[in-house]
Design goal:
With 286 residues, the chain is mainly β. It has strands at 12-19, 25-32, 39-45, 55-62, 69-72, 81-84, 87-94, 100-107, 118-120, 124-126, 131-135, 142-146, 160-161, 167-174, 180-190, 204-205, 223-231, 237-241, 251-252, 255-256, 260-270, 275-284.
């Protein structure tokens, strides 16, 4: 080339000779460096389910000659993309010199409800009792339980349930992107009978160490709270208990009591909040 300037050169070493009219010459050379290689590095994140569009592609470009242009097949012109549905995304990055780099990213489905479980602490309770309900917690997901009857909250992952009758509770999980999941748990509620013979106080017992009828217990499967006291013929209290599992062995202050008829008084509150009261007598036999 015989001009003073030259353009559209590629990477390499260039020499120039300058000569005047008298034939005097000077020679020089130049190294044209190549800009850093244009490249793009990106990372796609999955969507929550096949109808969700919450995927992203986050990345950055290196090298080339700025400014850089980003062209996605989805119409995007930014370095990153968000609110993507599942599928393939193609990117062309172009620098100021027309250099291009192409890349492809796949936004996949990572189903967020794959390992969900719904359960109760006790799936069978008596009227008036309560039990805990549970659902596997997932960050960013809302929970709604139905029906609301007997629930401490319909929006907690772990509400307390105290239904009056056998109830199936349904829980719906919603991620806000269209992914929903429904599961259920049934709580069986048993009827409570807060009266005799479902509350049984023996009229006699034989604390003689033979292993048969040695301890006097108040028997009932419906007791939530209890007060039971036994008195001798002079009105002195010889035994009391608030625990149905703690019975009387026929002693007082560590001494065996004589066979006799003893009076008792009992108060019971059942699981259904009904109360039972009774006075009576018990015969201690040896």
């Amino acid at each position: 080339d015989n001009t003073q300037t030259i353009d559209s050169l590629c990477y390499g070493i260039y020499a120039v000779t300058v000569e005047d009219q008298q034939g005097c010459q000077t020679v020089d050379s130049f190294l044209l460096n190549q800009p850093p290689i244009l490249q793009y590095s990106g990372n796609p994140t999955p969507v929550n389910c096949d109808v969700a569009c919450n995927g992203t592609i986050t990345g950055y470009a290196l090298g080339g000659t700025p400014p850089l242009m980003f062209n996605w097949n989805s119409g995007g012109t930014t370095e990153d993309l968000s609110n993507l549905c599942q599928g393939s995304y193609y990117l062309t990055v172009t620098d100021a010199n027309g250099c291009e780099v192409l890349d492809t990213f796949i936004v996949e489905v990572d189903y967020i409800y794959d390992n969900i479980d719904v359960w109760a602490d006790d799936d069978t309770i008596y009227q008036g009792q309560e039990t805990g309900l549970h659902s596997t917690p997932i960050p960013g997901v809302t929970y709604t339980w139905d029906p609301p009857d007997g629930l401490s909250s319909i929006y907690d992952t772990d509400p307390t349930a105290s239904p009056d009758a056998t109830t199936t509770y349904y829980v719906e999980l919603d991620d806000g992107y269209g992914c929903k999941y429904v599961d259920s748990v049934t709580i069986v509620v048993l009827e409570v009978f807060c009266f005799e013979p479902y509350i049984f106080i023996p009229n006699s017992f034989t604390p003689n160490g033979d292993g048969q009828n040695d301890i006097l217990f108040v028997r009932s499967q419906y007791i939530e709270e209890m007060y039971f006291a036994v008195y001798d013929r002079w009105g002195e209290k010889v035994f009391e208990s608030t625990d149905p599992q703690y019975g009387w062995d026929g002693t007082f202050r560590g001494e065996l009591l004589e066979p006799a008829v003893y009076d008792y008084y009992i108060e019971i509150r059942c699981y259904n909040e009904l109360q039972f009261f009774k006075k009576g007598n018990i015969t201690l036999l040896r």
